[in-house]
Amino acid sequence: MANINEENVSKLIGEENIDMIAATSVLQLRASEIRQTDIKWQSYLQSQMITQRDHDFVSALDHGKKDLPDKSPEECCSVFINLLTHVSKDHTIQYILVMIDDILSENKNRVRIFREHNKTGQVWQPFLNLLNRQDEFVQHMTARIIAKLACWHPQLMEKSDLNFYLTWLKEQLKHNHIDYIQSVARCLQMMLRVDEYRFAFLSVDGISTLLSILASRVNFQVQYQLVFCLWVLTFNPLLAEKMNKFNAIPILADILSDSVKEKVTRIVLAVFRNLIEKPEDGQVAKEHCIAMVQCKVLKQLAILEQKRSDDEDIMNDVEFLSNRLQASVQDLSSFDQYATEVKSGRLEWSPVHKSAKFWRENAARLNERGQELLRTLVHLLERSADPVVLAVACYDVGEYVRHYPRGKHVIETLGGKQRVMHLLSHEDPNVRYEALLAVQKLMVHNWEYLGKQLEKEQIDKQAGGTVVGAKA
Predict the structure, then answer these.
(1) How far is the C-alpha of 44 from the C-alpha of 186, rounded, in Å?
(2) Is 383 helix (H, G, I), strand (E, B) or coil?
(3) What is the rounded CA–CA span in Å between residue 27 and residue 40?
(4) pLDDT tens digits for range 338-394
(5) Contact 336, 291 (CB under 8 A)
(6) CB of 142 within 8 A of CB of 131?
(7) How many CA atoms lie within 13 A of 51 on its CB side?
């Protein structure tokens, strides 16, 4: 089993131990209350719901015999599995789970009690079943115990059980109003340190879920925990290479720009560094650098340099990132800039769009990699709500058609013509104007005539006149 080496996470380990308390405070406060509960084990024995052995063992633990799990590990496992299986009352299940969690928290090696001394062969099922209970404390204390059993033992969790558990965690994250979201994130922080568990998380669409939540408004503690999850994921070179396919860099760049908490700044910078250092494909690392430049990360680095944080890790990462991003800018071609801007989904009226030379030289390159850039443009025309993005995308589609001989056919095949025509009725006048020009380019055959018409319309627009459509 390949865990991240402790030296690799030593930067944040001290702070994370503190954050662990904050991250599970709702769970821990409730657990403290439950520990004070007096469970009538005798009544369970009299009703024959538990055996005499179960009664004696759990009663002994209640009366302070804390070394029992170590002295009788097989009995300990059997008793607690039997209790979880035969007791139904929520408040008693809560108490049993707190007992199990305390046993594990006192000594990590005690996970072997439940992993190696379970004679039923059903290590996970008694716990996984509890994730379906209605009681939220039962669900989330169970999730915490599962994470410990899965991460503190050398034998990996089986695939089907693992996928069920990770899917449950992912779905809980989507309900980010719940009291226990920080506890859910803490479970993921533990799980994703195990390399094999990272790919299982990818397979249940976990990375896109993390990023979609980070793109919404969450408190800084959850923000920190989820970015931490991304950080540990990027220690794997393959996942570091895939990360920006989920639009990670623009989302993290926004967090960096808005961050007022130093620990959030630090963890975002650490992710950015991994996205450059960890990929084995140098071209991917270069693309990540370009994406960061496109998302104005250099500006944020300059601000951080001026602030001169006392945190040495922050300043080391700022220096590393600044050097790498500035070097990538020097090597950047105009097409690299354009491709990065399109992939980021953040189109703006940068000089490259209005350059006739650029389109003459590069229009055909939009067909590369299975028309990746064209497909992205069409996707933006369909999904973006930003008028600037829509206007620029319309303009680019028109310029592609104008400079690539088979452009009209390609755009129609991709559904771009329909999307542009739909934007003719957009509420924003600039979007309507650019959509009209793009439609004209899609329809016209006489480029010389169109050129004169476009020039005239531009003059009319600047003068505040009415745009007159050119006829094909």
Answers:
(1) 34
(2) helix
(3) 24
(4) 888 888 888 888 888 988 889 999 999 999 989 999 999 999 999 999 999 999 999
(5) no
(6) yes
(7) 11
